[in-house]
Amino acid sequence: MNLDFSQIVPYIPFILEGIGATLKFVSVSILAGFILGTILAIFKITGFWPLKAIADVYTSIFRGTPLILQLMIIYLAIPQLTGYDISAFLSAVLAFGLNSAAYVSEIIRAGIMAVDKGQTEAAKALGVPYRSMMLNIILPQAFKNILPALMNEFITLTKESALVSTIGYLDLMRRAQIAGADLYRNFEPLFFAGVIYWVMVTILTLAGRYVERRMRQSD
Amino acid sequence: MIKADNITKVFGKNEVLKGISTTVGKGEVVTIIGPSGSGKSTFLRCLNLLEEPTSGQIYINDEEITSPRVNKMEIRKNIGMVFQHFHLFPHMTALENVMYAPQKVKGLSKKEAEQIGKNLLARVGMTDKEKAYPNRLSGGQKQRVAIARALAMEPEIMLFDEPTSALDPEMVKEVLDVMKGLTETGMTMVIVTHEMNFAKEVADKVLFLDDGVLLEETEPNTFFTNPSTERAQSFLEKVL
């Protein structure tokens, strides 16, 4: 077997810088996706049909087409259509944020629907206004139920983030590829990047379990 | 104090209430009895507008609450409700459950709400469980907290929807005792129940519903010893 990890040593700082690049756009995307997803979820459960229609069409489009296509359209087609030279970072945040919002909205909607109808009735019977009921009674219970599904979505997003290497964004994946091309050896840098992805996802998983445990104190 | 005038309720093609009229006076305790599916709970839920009657009017203190102009939230502040399945807020402790509505709905300070909460939990014998979350409580304890939660809004009227039907038999008494205590305070109460002895003991008036129709409306002694309809007779033979 032809393996020599010592050769990637000079490239390690270069590849490690990719962690920051990846985390930067992943965290912004998760946050954007979560906020937009919550808003879309509330649109979906309102009785007002135009809002529901907007949210449903949105979800259908972003779930029904490949993420890499959405990324390419934003990165390559926006300059063509508008003349605005969009950066790789902004393209990545837009594509991943908008895409994630579609999935997150479905998760949150399901979480709200799964809260016992009796909770709404109890709140109504006490004269609690809709806003307080949602904020204090329904959403806390919904989020607790969907935390595993949300963590799953965040983990998926972290791993799929490697797609941005295709638009030249210097993330972890792209840097491993560049190192591989320079060295004419691909296994070592790719393996190294793989370990880093695994560590990031594991940290995310553990953080999720910790939050879950904290929230289960009332069980 | 409560007046229902020809209330009907239709779910799809199913006519659950077929024109119910009755009155409940201030401080009166009324129990609603009848077979499953007779519309007892639906009628009770119309009284605080958790169900909207298909037709008919309901008046509380001479105000028509079935009018479209009425603010339901305002009406409900004055009517407490206790459910068969408790519906305590699971992410709040017993005390927080009781404190929530006075703070959010009445705008009381945390301190004032806490005072009310502690007093009420003491009244239902739950002082030692103040800090317990609902899933650490037995059914009877949950229901007592739920009663305290409803009382915290200081309502004039309390509605009970089969409050002991989901309880293990040995826990029924503790809940009925709390309710009995409440009848002695002059609270206006409407109670849907299958506890015939309790109904006999505390009720000023018994309503017997069958298939969406109010068949009897009498004081309990007459109802339990000498019901006027055959339907009530056969029902009582089965349950007593």
Write the layout of secondary structure elements.
The complex is a heterodimer of chains A (219) and B (240).
Chain A lengths: L11 H34 L3 H16 L2 H16 L5 H27 L2 H9 L4 H31 L11 H12 L3 H29 L4
Chain B lengths: L1 E10 L2 E11 L4 E5 L6 H8 L7 E6 L2 E2 L7 H6 L1 E4 L11 H11 L5 H14 L15 H13 L5 E5 L7 H15 L4 E5 L3 H7 L2 E6 L2 E6 L1 H6 L4 H10 L1
Parallel strand pairs in B: 3-8, 3-9, 6-7, 7-8
Antiparallel strand pairs in B: 1-2, 1-4, 4-5, 9-10
Helix pairs in contact in B: 3-4, 3-5, 4-5, 5-6
Descriptive account of the structure:
The complex is a heterodimer of chains A (219) and B (240). Chain A is mainly α and 219 residues long. Chain A contains eight helices and no strands. Chain A has one domain (10-217): MetI-like fold (Orthogonal Bundle), CATH 1.10.3720. Chain A is 79% helix and 0% strand. In chain A, α1 packs antiparallel against α7 (172-183) and α7 runs antiparallel to α8 (187-215). The N and C termini of chain A lie far apart (54 Å). By secondary structure, chain B is α/β, with parallel strands linked by helices. The mean pLDDT of chain B is 94. Chain B has a six-stranded mixed β-sheet, with helices on both faces. In chain B, strands 2-1-4-5 form a four-stranded antiparallel β-sheet, with helices on one face. Chains A and B meet through α5 and α6 of A and α2, β6 and α3 of B.
